[in-house]
Amino acid sequence: MKIVLLGYMGSGKTAMGRMLARQANLAFIDLDHYIEQVEELSIPEIFHRYGEGGFRQIESFHLRQVMEHQDHFVLSLGGGTPCFNDNMDYLHGACTSIYLSASPIALAERLACSTTKRPLLKGKTGNELLEYVRQSLSQREPFYKKADYELSVETLSVEESGLALAELLKKNHIL
Q1: pTM, whole model, 2 decimals?
Q2: For a Cys-Cys bond, which of 20, 66, 78, 147 suits 97, CB 3.0-4.6 Å?
Q3: For residue 42, what is the DSSP state?
């Protein structure tokens, strides 16, 4: 069983992925963390050294490595992973994918305190952050919408989102 969580930064992919993996007795893999371990560089260091294009190539390579060499896991993708190098086409049919959706306002509120840790958000605050989230989400959402399922996490806490995700998977006979 391969379950892949995708969505914008701040949608709760990592927190919900950990929770779901525990509940379902599956391994949990955070793609960004996996990349940092294997490459022995932080994501910001990879961006600085190779630029976004270089990072996206590295990211796609490691996504394929995980998918081809691991079984029975919950994988959380980086927010941009689905949008590059035909990654969504690659994932289609190889796993169960779930898009964790939320509005730009909700996402910007969640991201406001973590912009220094995220290379694409560095230095953005307030309206500038909201406008960036609004614009980039509109570009990314067509890729996110290719997921097998969509779960709105707009007004849910992490715990409520985790329960809703488990219920969605049970209802569709995945768990």
Answers
A1: 0.92
A2: 147
A3: -
> pLDDT tens digits, residue range 143-167?
999 999 999 999 988 889 989 999 9
Phi, psi at 145, each rounded to 5°: -70, -10
Q: How far apart are CA 144 and CA 83, in angstroms?
A: 8
Which residue range forms the structural domain that includes residue 20? 2-167
73-76: strand order across its sheet: 27-30, 73-76, 2-6, 96-101, 149-152
CATH, residue 72 = 3.40.50.300
Instruction: Compute the chain's Rg from CA coordinates.
Output: 15
Helix (H) or strand (E) holding 28: strand 27-30
Residue reference for tokens 């289609």: 92
Spatial distance between the Cα atoms of 13 and 128, rounded to a whole number of angstroms: 24
For residue 18, what are the contacts with CB-CB under 8 A and spacing of at least 6? Answer: 28, 74
Q: What pLDDT score was predicted for residue 116?
A: 59
Number of folded domains that form the chain: 1
